[in-house]
Amino acid sequence: MRFAPVAVAILALFCSGAALAQGWFMFEDKAEFFTVNFPHEPKVEDIMLESEYGMELTGRVYTAENRGSTYKITVLNYEGAQVTDVRGSVAWMATKFRQGPGKITYDAYAQIDRIEGHQLQILNADESRTFIGMHLHARRLYILEATVPRGTPPPAQFQVSLGIFGTDGNRVRYDIDADGQRTPATEGGALGEAP
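The structure corresponding to this sequence follows.
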């Protein structure tokens, strides 16, 4: 049969991909209203950080390492902060990353489930790459960071897996117009509360 070698090659690719993905699971923290794909149970650390306008923010950092790569999500709670501090949090954090070491190779708008944010990619001195995504929802800033060694594919399995829950416990997804007006989506996912 002519198609047998092709079928075997496709099966081999599928099985090797599945082997690489072993152990990955959707981690959830309902108290911080998010889910993300991790290679194993992350280490969790409580932190304090000063906002752009000097407010002490509480936060949590979730970190997992796998095959020389580091996957991290930081959740900063902006409850009680002034509106300028909250609305400017993504831009402020992006500026902090830009001022760090490494060369910015990508710097652009991003969205996850129509929750707006920003993405950066940084080439580090050791030629590892750091992929960053920042998204603000309901006064929480979610910062995804994945650093992978030189020659390693982008960490898409981590980057695109962020999901945010509404106070009702369902994952939120929005429809958005060109002016940035969001309404809860009625198709393609569970309803959440409006921003």
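The chain has one domain: 23-184.
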